[in-house]
Design brief:
MFS_trans_sf; two-stranded antiparallel ribbon; transmembrane helix; membrane; 2 strands; about 500 residues; nitrate transmembrane transporter activity; mainly alpha; Major facilitator superfamily (MFS) profile domain-containing protein
Amino acid sequence: MELESKSAPRNFALSVDSENKVTEFKVFSVSTPHMRAFHLSWISFFACFVSTFAAPPLLPIIRDNLDLTATDIGNAGIAAVSGAVFSRIAMGTACDLFGPRLASSALILLTAPAVFLTSIANSAISFLLLRFFMGFSLATFVSTQFWMSSMFSAKVIGTANGVAGGWGNLGGGATQLIMPLVFSLIHKIGATQFTAWRIAFFIPALFQVLSAYAVFFLGQDMPDGNYAKLHKSGEKHKDNMLDVLYHAFTNYGGWILALTYGYCFGVELTVDNIIAQYFFDRFHVNLHAAGIIAATFGLANLFSRPGGGMLSDIVAKRFGMRGRLWALWIVQTLGGLFCVLLGKVESLSGSIVVMLVFSVFCQAACGLTFGVVPFVSRRSLGIILGMTGGGGNVGAVLTQVIFFRGTRYSTETGITYMGIMIICCTLPISFIYFPQWGGMFYGPSSKGLTEEDYYMKEWSLNEKENGFHQASMKFASNSRSERGKRVESAPTLIDGTPNIIV
């Protein structure tokens, strides 16, 4: 078996580790299965983002056609991001049990009808419900991050997660440009305005369906094959859902990251819903100009979220996990400060500049978050990803309900208070502690605990005797890079047996 393990890397176009996860990130490669999974994941997530936020750019027309009030529009915006709260946790469970390929393609196909049916919406209630169900598709973010964590090694996981997530999130900005263009083309062909916006929704719907089929037929769950095949051959243990849930929900690190992600990605979703209206109302720019300004916020994901993931990997090479945590705290806190400033600036040009700087820090923090998440748990990786992703949507819902619904606060005041919330909700990162690597303020445990000790706690003695823990053991070995070069770290096991058996 050992000889087979060592020879396995020869089957791949790129260099891999002992888990057959690729150790380099070549964005222009389409080699199977690693880089193909990368491209399929971000494109399908991009398609879902375009569908979910296809309505806001056309709201002036949709509003007049359906007689929507300001409250109706606000509720629909909240519905669009709240739909993914529970679906992201469910997606995490599905990824753990059935694999990211099947889980992702199934969700995309199940939510596509809501996009098609938007074309026949005839009331505020139907519009709200359809946006709610469309929002479920944003749970493909979880399968995207799970897929990347299954294909890329610890050394490049921050980069892979950051680029895949960032390019997928580009859909939020791209749709601000795509949908008005599609609408204009249909209108010029001869359709009335109230008919053109309805036909326009067929474009994101078809895009979404095609991406689902591409994921299912062209993708592969893991470097060694799909879950069904690996379960059947015995190469992968078919886990118990209750055990997976237990180890996820009892890991405090997952809850902290869910909170902090609520105030980077959650803020990003909030801004996607309010920023065009903010510039239109406060600075009296026309709708077209407001849409372009709003698009620049989302389009910054082209480099900002990937940059956060890359920064996470760069600091980890020298400072290990402690570097990842410090970088996340600093970048997200700076994002909060610029958010406060955005609500205070009173000139149009100044607000645009501050918004762009704020977008870079806000989105980079998202990438930095998912440079840490893959290390919190191995057995319950999908659930932890789902919890964190769902936390982003919870943050978006709460922020919009508290600061941007009704007339209690002006939009600029709400933005300022949102910045203060970012700063406060980032502080708990200081409590995340890995005994084998340390945390922001403390080094590794003096008990000499290793990576194997940490990840083996998720398996019972009986499960270890049956060898179910072997994948976690491999990950533990490959994650020693998180010790960094200048940080005191736990000793390396010689015989491969953890010091503590739980």
